[in-house]
Design goal:
299 residues, alpha/beta, eight-stranded parallel beta barrel, globular, disordered C terminus
Length: 299
Amino acid sequence: MTIPATRATPASALALAVVTEPLRAAPAAPGAREENLRALLQTAADGGVRAVVSRPDGDEERLLGHAWPFPSPFEVTVRTVASTEGLDRVEARARRSLERMGLPRAEVLLVSAAADLAGSEGRALWDRVQGLKDRGLFRKVGFVAEVDDGPALLARRLSPDVVRLSCNLLDQAAFRSGELEALNGLGVQVQLSSVFAKGALFAGSATPEAWHGRELELSRARRRLAEARIDPMQAALAYGLSLPGDPRLVVSVASAAEMRAILAAVHAPAPNLDWTELDLGRRAPAAETTGARSVSSAA
């Protein structure tokens, strides 16, 4: 695999989304949770990861604030609360996120949903976000979107620095639709979420809601990887690394052990695969005929 010139290592393409709640690990006492998080962050830093993404809900930001390695190498992305909470609340909560994480400033502030920018208060919301950038609290601003939101069109209107889109090996709509190429053409930095298709790539995982009714197709995709002796995590990361524009790949990680596995996978040679053969999003799910959400809008 050829590493793009703008990347020092494949690991520098990763953005770490820390799972602080015991979703994939046994519950731990508060002190143990902080120690586990320190180990996770240090493992990521030692491995060359240089970005962390956070959420304003739960206790994640406070835990991060107590666990940063020193000196911290991480650029941090913060998300806003929903605009339905009011513009004053959106601005105040973004400032509070910095306080909770012990940061004087962060790298990126993302509006949590593109739909918030399309409403009647969309321009006022964007002005608030830009104001925080102008005050030096965030170096870049942008928004989280799905392909159906038309992110490139919105980007032409607002000129964001960053857009986060879901895209993965099983649902390549962001690339297939041309939205990713269009954002690259506008000079927008892209963060890709749902890189592991919310666990759908991994045999034994519960089938995510967006993929209900497509278990047979998922099984075939997993079998194709197994027969080629390709680790699903390696394939998922290699696909992300192959995309144009050097996007940041947002990966959720719950432990130092998971971080080591991801680092090993991202540094592995790229598998010899035809990515389009694994794009299940090319075919509309049968569930759509009964009114279920499409995979591209929910994966």
